[in-house]
Amino acid sequence: MGSETLVYNVPGISCSHCAAAIRGEVEAVPGVASVEVDLDAKTVTVAGTSLDAAALVAAIDEAGYEVA
Length: 68
Known about the structure:
- By secondary structure, this protein is of the alpha+beta class.
- It has helices spanning 16-26, 53-62; strands at residues 3-9, 32-38, 43-49.
- Strand 2 and strand 3 (43-49) form a beta hairpin.
- The model has no long low-confidence stretch (mean pLDDT 95).
């Protein structure tokens, strides 16, 4: 499978600490190439190959944030 990008709406993120916590968990998921957290838009954009959507949502949850 080729490269893909998934975007998640995470209303609870509000600061750089939130962003760092999410990035740390999501970057550990296999296949993830990059993670961008937009504090203004409250989104997490994940790029990579063969991404597992359930694992990404679980990683965001593990960081303490809920995907809307």
